[in-house]
Amino acid sequence: MSSKTLEGVRILDLSRVLAAPLASQMLADLGADVIKVERPGTGDESREYGPPFLNDRDGNPTSDAAFYLSCNRNKRSVTVDLASPRGQEIIRRLAADSDVVLENFKTGALKKYGLDYDSLKAVNPRLVYCSITGFGQTGPLAHKPGYDGVFQAMGGMMSVSGLPDDAPGGGPMKVGISIVDILTSLYASNAILAALHHRDVGGGTGQHIDLSLLDCGVASLSHFAMNYLVSGEIPARRGNGGYGGVPSQTFRCADRDLFLTAGNNAQFGRLCLALDRPDIAKDPRFDNTAGRIRNRDALLAMLDAIFATKPASVWLERLDLADVPSSPVNDIADALANPQVVHREMVREIEHPVAGVLKTLRNPIRLSETPINDYAPPPLVGQHTDQILAAAGYAPEDIETLRQAGVV
């Protein structure tokens, strides 16, 4: 059985790049029919975000970057020129029969095409219209552009990532992945589902969802922000160290790094036994959580010296036997080869029309009654244009006329 959780929900996806396409991919995985609207000829600009590019069956690079492939599976692609009046009419016709419109154009950009929320609401009052922008629909920066790194910097995330200023290589650090985009996609998919529930179960109407990457980045500060709001103190950067129980961080072993967390007294006691240093757990500086936090530097210096004496594999075996949460610090290849990750089938193989077998990450959601088993490959540019327009009432000759005019 495949996932039919969102069967019957139709999403008109005008978005591109990452945050919004990830949101629509999440909903597509759950069974929604997602129609991806792309520019004629070139398609979503993220198709060009390579290398690496997908290779065809003969090993030759295609025009689709791995970046694009990461966030567009289970969708159908139609090409439409939004700047063309006839293209705008196509969008209005598709929106009239859709449940959701998702877009991430600059604030106000779609109004000049008559494709903003108010315009499409007039066509379909039940429409849930989700706008994802850098700064939101209101405020002094609403019309500015921005990308993930900008919001990590502006939203405070970089200030709490990285080593302290006085450490070698110290300073604010950007998270390696586009984490604000990814977090925003999760907020967006949740918001869309909530709005659909309000409309269909709560007796409400359609509505406009205003999501800002800056807002989502700030919201993701979570307990860091709460610590500041309660104490008035700006959190210090601690590199790979945690902000709760101590120790919770990486340690350099004789050959590589490992990460462990001993967040309570019982775990800390077992850690010290695994290190053959039960005396550390009895030291009055370290025999309680608050003491370990106060005396963090002294404790970490001792642990650093101990871990450096043996290979990580030795320590990890001991830590596992002691039931202390720990892991080697894996690169992506190591992570995907981890036996637990392999067992959970987090990498799936699907059939791509050009590349043949394509490996992709699976959706981590596990539903007992409606499991996510369908993984259609990310579409080629305009792959489903004729199919989608025909279903919208366009005759074959009309579609060909639109194609000759460059509208689709």
From TrEMBL:
InterPro entries listed in its UniProt record: CoA-transferase_III_domain, CoA-Trfase_fam_III, CoA-Trfase_III_dom3_sf, CoA-Trfase_III_dom_1_sf
Span list, region Disordered: 40-59
Keywords: Transferase
Top-level taxon: Bacteria
Gene3D superfamilies to which the protein is assigned, alphabetical: Crotonobetainyl-coa:carnitine coa-transferase, domain 1, formyl-coa transferase, domain 3
Alphabetical list of Pfam families matching this protein: CoA_transf_3
Name of the protein described by the UniProt record: Crotonobetainyl-CoA:carnitine CoA-transferase CaiB-like acyl-CoA transferase
Organism name: Caulobacter rhizosphaerae
